[in-house]
Amino acid sequence: MPIKGLIFDAYGTLYDVHSVHAKTEELCPGKGDLITQIWRLKQLEYTWLQTSLQEYRDFTYLTQVSLEFALRAAGVEPSENITKPLFEKYLDLDPYPEAKEALGALKKRGGSQLAILSNGSTAMLSALVKNSGLDALLNATISVDGARKFKPHPDCYALIEKTLGLKNDEVMFVSSNGFDVAGAKHFGFKVAWIRRGGSTPLPPGPVGPAQIYRLLRGNPETLGYLQDYTVAALTDLVGLL
Amino acid sequence: MPIKGLIFDAYGTLYDVHSVHAKTEELCPGKGDLITQIWRLKQLEYTWLQTSLQEYRDFTYLTQVSLEFALRAAGVEPSENITKPLFEKYLDLDPYPEAKEALGALKKRGGSQLAILSNGSTAMLSALVKNSGLDALLNATISVDGARKFKPHPDCYALIEKTLGLKNDEVMFVSSNGFDVAGAKHFGFKVAWIRRGGSTPLPPGPVGPAQIYRLLRGNPETLGYLQDYTVAALTDLVGLL
């Protein structure tokens, strides 16, 4: 079947979650790296724990409480003058450098709907695509709020057909996150994994928080659901169609 | 209600999961710390991903594939001469130094059943309690195999009443793992959190894999389910009864 929809993960795939680093370092000098990485690791853990606990509190809530966790873990007492600007930066993350060009080329080519399917809450995603200007290039921005589950739960991926009317074999799903690749493949999509920095070998010397993050998230999961394609940048996608 | 059952988490609570470190360092010189920490982080991630994917592959499988992940992440090709002895060591983890004494004192005191409720597979747990001799002190060793879910899914904690006939308010659940504390409290048990090293401040200098692990697992989760008691060692439990 021809691909009729390219569906993108947002955080880590179109948007650089680590672009909160500079603001974190400014507010918590010397601890920007540690807090940024713990924040993101814990934020994802909390999505999975919510599903395990059979609860749903949205990504706005989980992003805020995981930030509190990360600050305390790093020995910083959470106060509004730190948490407010950091959460606001999360609504205005930097897109990866090639994101706009890649989406522009895919839109110009035509023939496929372009959309986001993200763990983000409706409110967070709406701010994010607007602030970055990617909203003009996308047909839809779909939040897992519609399923009240988090990826990789199958109900999340089922939102694609519900929202866009696309069958599984008409979808190419694009993500940098190993768990999301596994979830999308398990659900039955064609999957392109974008390898964000995972391929470079570890630098010599001590392994710090950023490397740990990269190793945990930037390598293929060994759960038995592997991607169909691996790309180095979003601009490589057009060549797969 | 009086407490009629003390239920212990196994990995990280009675048994030191990092006691695989020496063997890992011996087999993969210079990489023992990194591999051990990534292994344990990924092993837990995979339990939550299994629940999210609505699958159940047991802890034996997940422990093996997460080890493969960790070895590859650290640039080591998994081969049987590495994976076999490491998995075997996982069946013979060191109990924490005070575990035997604490269980012995609780057994001598009487009045409460003593049991393990663990993510471990039936086969892994059976080997573990036998190899360490803790089987002689426990009334039961309960695997989440009986629920085909992983903690913190409520079906796991429900195994306590099914197996031991104890009502929620008769149970004191003991764990070092924040997610397990949250799950047990959410389910309705009284919960004692054993703070394994989490209370010591970060040492100065670079933050390495062991510190990251300690920060992620050794601090209370901010999901709104806090323990009733905090203890520094298992031997402090008898004072709570």
Question: What does this protein look like?
Answer:
The structure is a homodimer of 241-residue chains. Helices cover 44% and strands 11% of the residues of chain A. Chain A is globular and about 55 Å long. With 241 residues, chain A is of the alpha/beta class. Chain A is built from ten helices and six strands, in the order E-H-H-H-H-H-E-H-E-H-H-E-H-E-H-E. A six-stranded parallel β-sheet of chain A has the order 3-2-1-4-5-6, with helices on both faces. The longest helix of chain A has 21 residues, at 32-52. Chain A has helices at 21-27, 32-52, 59-73, 80-90, 99-109, 122-132, 154-157, 159-164, 178-187, 209-217, and strands at 5-8, 113-118, 140-143, 171-175, 190-194, 229-231. Chain A has two domains: 5-16 and 93-240, HAD superfamily/HAD-like (Rossmann fold); 17-90, Putative phosphatase, domain 2 (DNA polymerase, domain 1), CATH 1.10.150.240. The termini of chain A are close together. The interface between A and B is large, with 46 and 46 residues.
Q: Which assembly state applies to the chains in this document?
A: homodimer
Question: What is the gyration radius of chain A calculated from CA atoms?
Answer: 17 Å
How much helix is in the residues of chain A?
Answer: 40-55%
SSE string of chain A, helices as H and strands as E: EHHHHHEHEHHEHEHE
Molecular shape of chain A? globular
Class per helix and strand makeup of chain A: alpha/beta
Question: Residue-averaged pLDDT of chain A, rounded?
Answer: 95
| Discrete helix count of chain A | 10
Tell me about the largest β-sheet of chain A.
Answer: 6 strands, parallel
Distance N to C terminus of chain A: 11 Å
> Given this structure, which CATH class of the largest domain in chain A is correct?
Alpha Beta
What do we call the CATH homologous superfamily of the largest domain in chain A?
HAD superfamily/HAD-like
CATH hierarchy: architecture of the largest domain in chain A = 3-Layer(aba) Sandwich
The CATH topology label of the largest domain in chain A is Rossmann fold
Largest inter-chain interface? Answer: A-B, 46 and 46 residues
Arrangement of strands in the largest sheet of chain A: 3-2-1-4-5-6
**How many distinct folded domains of chain A?**
2
Strand proportion of chain A, as a percent range, falls in 5-15%
Q: Which stretches of chain A are poorly predicted, pLDDT < 50 over at least 5 residues?
A: none
β-strand number of chain A: 6
